[in-house]
Amino acid sequence: MTNMETSYRIKGATGDWEVVIGLEVHAQVTSNAKLFSGAATAFGAEPNSQVSLVDAAMPGMLPVPNRECIRQAVRTGMAIDAQINKWSRFDRKNYFYADLPQGYQISQLYHPLVGEGAVEIEDDGRSKTIGVERIHVEQDAGKLMHDQHPKRSYVDLNRSGVALMEIVSKPDMRSPAEAGAYLTKLRSILRYVGSCDGNMDQGSMRADVNVSVRKPGDEFGTRTETKNVNSIRFVMAAIEHEAKRQVAVLEDGGTIQQETRLFNPDTGTTRSMRSKEDAHDYRYFPDPDLLPLELDDEFLDECRASLPELPGAKRKRYEALGISAYAADVITAEVESARWFDALLDAGAKPVAAANWVTSELFGALNRLGKSIGESPVQPGQAAELLALVADGTLSGSLAKQVFEAMLETGDAPGKIVEERGLKQTSDTGAIEAVIADVLEKNPKQLEQYRGGKEALFGFFVGQTMKAMAGKANPQVVNDLLKKALAG
């Protein structure tokens, strides 16, 4: 792959502007409990039904780190080849807000769990490395609900204390498309690893979007941070709007304020929320209730051994089997699809035929039915059986489509459907020859034209023969026998 060259520029009255983008992704850790308490983290629970005394900041309650949350963050770091810090520390980030019972958030400013790593992104056969500065773990805040009462706001503390990984990129992205590709790839990695479900619509993955603009080659400009954007499409839209807004301000003689902004998905615009705080505004200091985290080699070895085959390695393996780069990319994009395809190969399907069938027939059918691959009525073993029936000549391509439709409707095995519905392809030369003779007899005019040099009519005779045999004749045998009969 070649390096990705970004030609994205914003056209201004004074010339071209370049956009500089960094993303801070908050990914909810898949675990059995919150970061410092045993409370559950299920999505959609009744307000305040998943709140321990620790989450509610009751006096005398002390936090205890959840080992599984730390393990998942370490595994995520390993998946992007990041430095894992054997020694890390929790800090208190102090601020008051009604959904933060403690009056501070426990985070990791100075000594994060995971150091520098990288994510490779691809676009149209080109690649680029986006640096990751750090991954630290922190607890989420609760949530204010403003639509439950005409005059009051209610507080739901279910999210209070939920474990988050904050994955901070370097300012290496130069277009909305690159930011979209980075988020897509990062989400895929998290889902493969199993450290976050990546459900952005449920808030378990969201991004703070840092944007600045500059004339190409100049120093970085002042950046703004657009908070809590919860879809890849919205992140791309927020970047585009914010970059164009900044260019307009600068070309009008104004200056960019370092501030926090909010994105409105209905209008595709951003608006100012508050001036951007610096670290000293939060009076960070080491959390006195928590010892530093110290990881031993045995724990790290166990984390590394538990990692699955990641999307990049899986794609290369598929391509080595002869599968096209496009098909390999489509299949590996989602972990469920890749697992389903691996099960199909394990059931004996030939790689190239299997990949072509999955990316066209299966994905097309699931899309039509509005189902995910996890909800597929057809299981990998059944699909392998169907492909084997095509490979050995029992089914033609058109018959295979009929059998597949029946499988989607009934969930039955292809062999059973073929037997019950008499859909077996025939290679019986005697039967095919008899049909061909009948076709030629019924179409004397076309026969005369063909023998007079109009060879394009060959397809007509093939079609008539296949129609007469209800599509059950082996096309290759039909072609061979027709050539012989027409030459006679």
From TrEMBL:
Transferase in keyword set: yes
EC nos: 6.3.5.-
Residue ranges of the TM segments: none
InterPro entries: Asn/Gln-tRNA_amidoTrfase_suB/E, Asn/Gln-tRNA_Trfase_suB/E_cat, Asn/Gln_amidotransferase, Asn/Gln_tRNA_amidoTrase-B-like, GatB, GatB_C_1, GatB_Yqey_C_2, Gln-tRNA_amidoTrfase_suB_CS
Family annotation (SUPFAM superfamilies): GatB/YqeY motif, Glutamine synthetase/guanido kinase
Boundaries of every Asn/Gln amidotransferase domain copy: 339-486
Catalytic activity: L-glutamyl-tRNA(Gln) + L-glutamine + ATP + H2O = L-glutaminyl-tRNA(Gln) + L-glutamate + ADP + phosphate + H(+); L-aspartyl-tRNA(Asn) + L-glutamine + ATP + H2O = L-asparaginyl-tRNA(Asn) + L-glutamate + ADP + phosphate + 2 H(+)
Example GO molecular function: asparaginyl-tRNA synthase (glutamine-hydrolyzing) activity
Entry keywords, A to Z: ATP-binding, Ligase, Nucleotide-binding, Protein biosynthesis, Transferase
Family the entry assigns: Belongs to the GatB/GatE family. GatB subfamily.
Complexes and interactors: Heterotrimer of A, B and C subunits.
Annotated function: Allows the formation of correctly charged Asn-tRNA(Asn) or Gln-tRNA(Gln) through the transamidation of misacylated Asp-tRNA(Asn) or Glu-tRNA(Gln) in organisms which lack either or both of asparaginyl-tRNA or glutaminyl-tRNA synthetases. The reaction takes place in the presence of glutamine and ATP through an activated phospho-Asp-tRNA(Asn) or phospho-Glu-tRNA(Gln).
Name of the featured protein: Aspartyl/glutamyl-tRNA(Asn/Gln) amidotransferase subunit B
Annotated organism of origin: Sphingomonas palmae
